[in-house]
Amino acid sequence: MFECHPICRGVAEGDALVSSDNICFYLTDPTAGKVIEEGHSIEGESVAGKVLVFPGGKGSSVVQADGMYQLAVKGNSPSALIIEYPETVLVASAIIMEVPMVDRVDKEFYRVVKNGDKVKVDAEKGTITVVKAP
User: Fold this and answer.
1) CB 100 within 8 A of CB 10
2) Marked catalytic residue, from 60, 61, 79, 93
Protein backbone atom coordinates (compact mmCIF):
# COMPACT_ATOMS: atom_id res chain seq x y z
CA MET A 1 0.00 0.00 0.00
CA PHE A 2 1.25 3.45 -0.87
CA GLU A 3 0.41 6.76 0.72
CA CYS A 4 -0.68 9.66 -1.45
CA HIS A 5 -2.00 13.18 -1.26
CA PRO A 6 -5.73 13.43 -2.10
CA ILE A 7 -6.62 16.21 -4.51
CA CYS A 8 -10.15 15.22 -5.53
CA ARG A 9 -11.89 12.98 -3.00
CA GLY A 10 -13.45 9.63 -3.76
CA VAL A 11 -12.65 5.94 -3.96
CA ALA A 12 -12.21 4.09 -7.25
CA GLU A 13 -10.69 0.93 -8.66
CA GLY A 14 -9.62 -0.22 -12.08
CA ASP A 15 -6.83 -1.60 -14.17
CA ALA A 16 -3.75 0.59 -14.25
CA LEU A 17 -2.90 2.41 -17.45
CA VAL A 18 0.53 3.94 -17.15
CA SER A 19 1.58 6.77 -19.44
CA SER A 20 5.11 8.08 -19.63
CA ASP A 21 3.85 11.11 -21.56
CA ASN A 22 1.77 14.08 -20.47
CA ILE A 23 -1.82 13.80 -21.65
CA CYS A 24 -4.11 16.14 -23.52
CA PHE A 25 -7.59 14.72 -22.90
CA TYR A 26 -8.83 16.48 -26.02
CA LEU A 27 -6.71 14.02 -27.98
CA THR A 28 -8.82 11.08 -26.87
CA ASP A 29 -11.81 9.69 -28.74
CA PRO A 30 -14.64 10.26 -26.26
CA THR A 31 -16.80 7.52 -27.79
CA ALA A 32 -14.26 4.85 -26.88
CA GLY A 33 -11.92 6.67 -24.51
CA LYS A 34 -8.95 5.83 -26.74
CA VAL A 35 -5.89 8.04 -26.90
CA ILE A 36 -5.59 9.18 -30.51
CA GLU A 37 -2.45 11.32 -30.24
CA GLU A 38 0.13 9.93 -32.66
CA GLY A 39 3.30 8.74 -31.01
CA HIS A 40 1.87 8.97 -27.48
CA SER A 41 3.09 6.24 -25.11
CA ILE A 42 -0.51 4.96 -24.71
CA GLU A 43 -1.74 5.68 -28.25
CA GLY A 44 -4.68 3.37 -29.03
CA GLU A 45 -5.28 2.47 -25.38
CA SER A 46 -8.59 3.34 -23.74
CA VAL A 47 -8.62 5.38 -20.53
CA ALA A 48 -12.25 4.37 -19.86
CA GLY A 49 -12.61 2.92 -16.39
CA LYS A 50 -8.83 2.78 -15.91
CA VAL A 51 -6.73 4.16 -13.11
CA LEU A 52 -4.66 6.51 -15.21
CA VAL A 53 -1.09 7.04 -14.03
CA PHE A 54 0.59 9.92 -15.82
CA PRO A 55 3.08 12.74 -15.33
CA GLY A 56 0.80 15.70 -16.11
CA GLY A 57 -1.41 17.42 -18.61
CA LYS A 58 -0.70 19.44 -21.69
CA GLY A 59 -2.70 21.77 -23.86
CA SER A 60 -4.81 24.79 -23.14
CA SER A 61 -7.40 24.97 -20.39
CA VAL A 62 -10.25 24.76 -22.90
CA VAL A 63 -9.06 21.56 -24.58
CA GLN A 64 -8.19 19.86 -21.28
CA ALA A 65 -11.51 20.64 -19.60
CA ASP A 66 -13.56 19.89 -22.72
CA GLY A 67 -11.68 16.66 -23.33
CA MET A 68 -12.42 15.42 -19.82
CA TYR A 69 -16.02 16.63 -20.12
CA GLN A 70 -16.56 14.76 -23.39
CA LEU A 71 -15.16 11.56 -21.85
CA ALA A 72 -17.52 11.98 -18.88
CA VAL A 73 -20.57 12.62 -21.07
CA LYS A 74 -19.87 9.44 -23.04
CA GLY A 75 -19.24 7.43 -19.86
CA ASN A 76 -15.59 6.87 -20.74
CA SER A 77 -13.75 8.79 -18.02
CA PRO A 78 -10.84 7.22 -16.20
CA SER A 79 -11.96 5.82 -12.84
CA ALA A 80 -9.14 7.68 -11.04
CA LEU A 81 -6.14 9.86 -11.82
CA ILE A 82 -2.69 9.47 -10.29
CA ILE A 83 -0.65 12.45 -11.41
CA GLU A 84 2.90 13.52 -10.67
CA TYR A 85 2.56 17.19 -11.58
CA PRO A 86 -1.02 18.43 -11.13
CA GLU A 87 -2.09 21.68 -12.68
CA THR A 88 -5.06 23.91 -11.99
CA VAL A 89 -7.07 22.95 -15.08
CA LEU A 90 -6.80 19.20 -14.54
CA VAL A 91 -7.52 19.56 -10.82
CA ALA A 92 -10.62 21.68 -11.49
CA SER A 93 -11.75 19.26 -14.22
CA ALA A 94 -11.35 16.23 -11.94
CA ILE A 95 -13.35 17.94 -9.20
CA ILE A 96 -16.14 18.94 -11.58
CA MET A 97 -16.25 15.48 -13.20
CA GLU A 98 -15.94 13.82 -9.74
CA VAL A 99 -12.95 11.70 -10.73
CA PRO A 100 -10.72 10.87 -7.73
CA MET A 101 -7.28 12.42 -8.19
CA VAL A 102 -4.12 12.03 -6.10
CA ASP A 103 -0.49 13.09 -6.25
CA ARG A 104 2.68 13.00 -4.09
CA VAL A 105 2.98 9.23 -4.34
CA ASP A 106 6.12 7.43 -3.20
CA LYS A 107 8.56 6.98 -6.12
CA GLU A 108 8.48 3.21 -5.43
CA PHE A 109 4.88 3.17 -6.67
CA TYR A 110 5.99 4.25 -10.14
CA ARG A 111 8.56 1.42 -10.20
CA VAL A 112 6.01 -1.19 -9.09
CA VAL A 113 2.83 -0.36 -11.02
CA LYS A 114 2.41 -1.78 -14.53
CA ASN A 115 -0.36 -1.74 -17.09
CA GLY A 116 -3.12 -4.15 -16.15
CA ASP A 117 -2.40 -4.23 -12.42
CA LYS A 118 -5.54 -3.83 -10.30
CA VAL A 119 -5.30 -0.51 -8.50
CA LYS A 120 -7.54 0.95 -5.80
CA VAL A 121 -7.26 4.67 -5.16
CA ASP A 122 -8.72 5.79 -1.85
CA ALA A 123 -8.57 9.56 -1.99
CA GLU A 124 -10.50 9.70 1.30
CA LYS A 125 -7.76 7.93 3.29
CA GLY A 126 -4.84 8.90 1.05
CA THR A 127 -3.86 5.38 0.02
CA ILE A 128 -3.23 3.41 -3.16
CA THR A 129 -3.34 -0.38 -3.26
CA VAL A 130 -1.78 -2.32 -6.14
CA VAL A 131 -2.60 -5.96 -6.88
CA LYS A 132 -0.21 -7.28 -9.49
CA ALA A 133 -1.71 -8.71 -12.66
CA PRO A 134 -1.10 -12.46 -13.04
Assistant:
1) yes
2) 60
Per-residue confidence (pLDDT) for residue 91, from 0 to 100: 93
Torsion of CA 31, 53, 59, 8, to 10 degrees: 90
Cβ atoms of 56 and 88 closer than 8 Å: no
**Neighbouring residues of 68: CB distance < 8 A, sequence distance ≥ 6:** 25, 77, 90, 93, 94, 97, 99
Task: Verify whether residue 93 is a known catalytic residue.
Answer: no
Q: Return d(Cα 95, Cα 63) in angstroms, integer.
A: 16
Phi, psi of 44 (to 5 degrees): 90, -15
Q: What is the reported pLDDT for 133?
A: 73
Q: Whole-angstrom Cα distance, residue 102 to residue 3?
A: 10
